[in-house]
Amino acid sequence: MTTRDFESTDSKPLDAGLYIVATPIGNLGDVTFRAVDVLRRCEVIACEDTRVTGKLLKHCDVSTRMLRYDDHASDRQRAGILDLARSQPVALVSDAGTPLISDPGYRLVKEARDAGIGVTSIPGACAAIGGLTLSGLPNDRFLFAGFLPVKEKARADMLGELAAIRATLIFYETGPRLERSLNAIADLWPGREVAVARELTKLHEECRTGTAVQLAEHYASHPPKGEIVLLVGPPVEQPEKIDADTMLREALLDNSTGKAAGLVAKATGLDRKRLYARAIELKSE
Ligand code: SAM
């Protein structure tokens, strides 16, 4: 049986409220039976783009009315959806994957909860989790950090903030920006294992692993197409065991004392002032 042929045996109407419905991230076969059931039985589906969601609904034989909702929606539009959800079942979907995860919906859910409106999650595909499970990187602890900033300084600041976290880091990425992000990661964490999970659930799905330098080299000659999850394994050693002296000596070759201390602090998460003092000692040796 396909999801299209699926017919719910539940004859009870859906309760009023907001239903957060995950949809596929490429392969339409990943829509769940429960997602189809809820989308059919809701009064209205709030979606980012009616053309994108319309294709999924057609595939699943769902004829529920759609209305647009995205991060640019006005307070009035959001209040309108919440008003509907007080008396009717309203679904929220995004273009692909799990709503709210680097997608619209946070404010809607927060305000629904604050207003005492029932909220139900219908889980399903999420690129971050697909990439993590495929990567072979440690998954006992992970931190999803969304998209890396485009501007160099903001990107370096964000990576610096995450440096000391002992978990696999997960980022969403785009093809044109991948090489720059890999180079930034290579500068900070040359030893960490990195994975690029691309086109998950689609025909050309691939997951390539290596150091950031190796992957940057590969993608420099094979410009990546499609959608990408970038994952960075946890620090190879615990921060306290990192040989800060070696890193400082290397950094001092090309940088002032302050800059060297700052770079090593960013890369390791160690205290910048202590590194600065140690760098002065090393310079006088
Ligand atoms: N809400 C979605 C989810 O649950 O994964 C993510 C939406 S976000 C706007 C889109 C980003 O997710 C893409 O730029 C890419 O980084 C990632 N992504 C979505 N689909 C993907 C896929 N099939 N393969 C790899 N990455 C994907």
Which hetero compounds are present in the coordinates?
S-adenosylmethionine
- Give the name of the CATH superfamily of the largest domain: Tetrapyrrole methylase, N-terminal domain
The number of helical elements comes to: 11
How much helical structure, as a percent, in the residues?
40-55%
Overall pLDDT level: 93
Shape: elongated
Helices and strands, in order, run as: EHEHEHEHEHEHEHEEHEHHH
Percent strand equals 15-25%
Task: Determine and state the CATH class of the largest domain.
Answer: Alpha Beta
Number of domains: 3
Please give a handful of descriptors for the protein shown:
11 helices, binds S-adenosylmethionine, Methyltransferase, Cobalt-precorrin-4 Transmethylase, Domain 2, single chain, alpha/beta, Cobalt-precorrin-4 Transmethylase, domain 1, 5-stranded mixed beta sheet, 285 residues, 3 domains, elongated, 10 strands
Architecture blueprint of SSEs:
Layout: E1 17-21, H1 33-41, E2 44-47, H2 50-59, E3 65-68, H3 75-87, E4 89-92, H4 106-114, E5 119-122, H5 127-135, E6 142-147, H6 152-162, E7 168-174, H7 175-188, E8 194-198, E9 206-210, H8 212-221, E10 227-232, H9 244-254, H10 257-268, H11 272-284
Parallel strand pairs: 1-4, 1-5, 2-3, 2-4, 6-7
Antiparallel strand pairs: 7-10, 8-9, 8-10
The protein binds S-adenosylmethionine.
The site of S-adenosylmethionine has 24 residues, from α5, β7, β8 and β10.
